[in-house]
Design brief:
The structure holds 2 protein chains of 2 kinds. By secondary structure, chain A is an alpha/beta fold. Chain A has 2 domains: 19-81 and 83-108 and 182-251 and 343-415, FAD/NAD(P)-binding domain (3-Layer(bba) Sandwich); 117-177 and 253-341, D-Amino Acid Oxidase, subunit A, domain 2 (D-Amino Acid Oxidase, Chain A, domain 2, 2-Layer Sandwich). Chain A contains 10 helices and 18 strands. In chain A, strands 1, 2, 8, 9, 10, 11, 17 and 18 form an 8-stranded mixed beta sheet that branches. Chain A has an 8-stranded mixed beta sheet with strand order 5-6-4-13-14-15-12-16. In chain A, strand 10 (215-221) and strand 11 form a beta hairpin. In chain A, helix 2 packs across helix 9 and helix 3 (89-106) crosses helix 9 (370-383). Chain B has a single domain (2-26, 36-93), classed as 2-Layer Sandwich (Folate-binding fold). Chain B has 2 helices and 6 strands, in the order βββαβββα. Chain B has helices at residues 37-48, 88-93; strands at residues 2-5, 9-12, 17-21, 56-62, 70-76, 82-87. Chain B has a 4-stranded antiparallel beta sheet with strand order 3-4-5-6. A two-stranded antiparallel sheet of chain B has the order 1-2. In chain B, strand 5 (70-76) and strand 6 (82-87) form a beta hairpin. Chain B is elongated. The chains are: A alpha/beta, B alpha+beta. Chains A and B meet through strand 12 and strand 15 of A and strand 3 and helix 1 of B.
Chain lengths: 416, 97
């Protein structure tokens, strides 16, 4: 059933009794043309674009837990394309353009809200760096605007402008950035893929890969063997765990990133805003809760929870930027496992094993990339060559030296 | 997390700086003019590839806010439980990992 205003009226008049299930719960078939390992945002969007754009049929998505139980369900929901480097900006701008048409495309209300993102600057040199970044964005077709303090004060009158050490001088705005209802992204892609015939198989853990003559021909799961002509892995923080079955060593460390929600408040933060003198980003959900986060904890972790020193550090950043949130009570906090790559940029590439493809290295920027990641991974799976916007996101870029080090921090994941 | 420092006793992990897999103390070696494929691959792997285990992990922590010693901490990455703490120099002098 296609969702529309008409369908809501019709269901309302008939007691909401005939809404169909949003997606099926099929048993796995013995073989598929495409198997996507990982039923999170990136896996589901890959399946959706494989079916809708590349016309592929006979696709399965295998998810170890329940649909969207990983990082798509535990992030701070920010979308933006305010990157600097060539390999990154076209990709993230593609993603932002896909977000803009997403709800009409997959016929689901994902609550895409382009409320604008502003990165604050606190010194002349930081302003110059942001002007350069803004120019790079504009040259790549994104939008950017430098705001001085007066313009910023109209939007956010009560920031800590006159701090003696880190005065807030202005910000780099991307008005098309914003936030999205994260769970609805998973549900929308799942429903959209299911409507195009994709089998989404939950509680199906891949425990091994089936290899024949150096090529991957299927996977072993807790629901039996499933053969596949092409197999794509998009499992974020579990990448090493899953891919270690193939014997590959990857440029990935798994780290925990914490995020936080306060109690519900009246509207005080109109968009997304980030601090320039510490790692802190915040927005306000439609329910009123302040949604915020900061740095990763900084040590390898597969536990979906972090430790208190980082909680303190994040909150210090928040109080330094907007002291007026100090009285708000924190309601919830959680941790997600990030696939931190060695240069802070993602990987969408072949693996060197025939028929096996890899989508990983999203660090803590995976949510905003969900549409373009799926689109480009689907392109790679369907055509055996990278999408033009993801051509730089190669697995071998570390040995060739063509890294995309947005932070300029070198091969140490906890600095990205 | 509390790290039981071999010299200073239990210390809060926030006193330390974390750099990652303890395998980094085992840097490959080569002559200055050796640009063979094996050597380049060894350095590439040393620099970029990680075991990233699900479970016990030996890793380097630097006691920046303390005695500035490098420690090798054995820690479970699924529970954050720390089971062993050694001075990195002791491990290296005994021949490495």
């Amino acid at each position: 059933m296609r969702y529309s205003g008409f369908s809501i009226i019709k269901q309302a008049l008939t007691g909401h009794k005939s809404w169909p299930k949003a997606w099926r719960t099929p048993d796995p078939k013995p073989a598929y043309d495409y198997i996507i390992v990982g039923g999170g945002g990136h896996g589901l969007s890959t399946a959706y674009y494989l079916a809708s754009v590349y016309g592929a049929k006979n696709i399965a998505v295998l998810e170890k837990g329940w649909l969207g139980s990983g990082n798509i369900g535990r992030n701070t929901t920010i979308i933006r394309s305010n990157y600097l480097l060539d390999g990154n900006v076209p990709f993230y701008e593609m993603s932002l353009k896909l977000w803009e048409g997403l709800e009409q495309d997959f016929n689901y209300n994902a609550m895409v809200s382009q409320r604008g993102i502003i990165n604050l600057y606190h010194s002349d040199s930081q302003r110059d760096a942001y002007a350069r970044r803004g120019n790079a964005m504009i040259m790549n077709g994104a939008d950017a605007e430098m705001l001085d303090q007066d313009a910023l004060r109209k939007l956010y009158p009560d920031l800590n402008y006159d701090n003696a050490r880190f005065p807030i001088m202005g910000g780099l705005a991307q008005w098309r950035g914003g936030s999205v209802r994260h769970d609805a992204v998973a549900w929308g892609y799942a429903r959209g893929a299911d409507r195009l015939g994709v089998d989404i198989i939950q509680n199906c853990e891949v425990t091994d890969f089936i290899m024949e003559k150096g090529a991957c021909t299927g996977v072993v799961t807790n629901k039996g063997k499933i053969m596949g002509k092409k197999i794509g892995v998009a499992v974020a923080g579990s990448t090493t765990k899953v891919m270690s079955k193939t014997g590959m060593r990857l440029p990935i460390e798994s780290h925990v990133l914490q995020a936080f929600v306060s109690e519900g408040l009246k509207p005080i933060i109109p968009g997304v805003i980030t601090y320039g003198m510490g790692h802190f980003y915040i927005s306000q959900s439609d329910k009123g809760g302040l949604v915020f986060g900061g740095d990763i904890d900084g040590y390898n972790s597969y536990a979906q929870r972090g430790n208190l020193p980082v909680v303190e550090h994040v909150c210090e950043g928040g109080i330094a930027m907007m002291p007026y949130i100090g009285k708000a009570k924190m309601l919830r906090m959680w941790g997600g496992i990030m696939d931190m790559s060695m240069d802070g940029s993602p990987i969408i590439d072949k693996t060197g094993i025939d028929n096996l493809y890899l989508n990983t290295g999203w660090c803590y920027g995976g949510f905003k990339a969900t549409p373009a990641s799926g689109y480009c991974f689907a392109h790679l799976l369907a055509n055996d060559e990278p999408h033009e916007n993801a051509a730089a996101l190669r697995l071998d870029r570390f040995s060739t030296g063509a890294v995309i080090d947005e932070r300029g921090a070198g091969a140490q994941p906890n600095l990205h | 997390m509390i790290i039981n420092h071999p010299l200073l006793g239990p210390r809060d992990a926030s006193e330390f700086y974390y750099i990652g897999d303890a395998a980094m103390i085992m840097r490959p070696d080569a002559k200055p003019d050796d640009h063979s494929a094996e050597t380049m691959a060894a350095f590439d792997s040393y620099q970029h590839h990680r075991d990233n285990p699900h479970g016990f992990h030996r890793e380097l922590w630097y006691h920046e806010q303390g005695d500035r010693s490098w420690l090798i901490v054995t820690r479970n990455t699924t529970t954050h439980e720390i089971t062993k703490v050694e001075l990195a120099r002791d491990v290296k002098l005994k021949g490495g990992l």
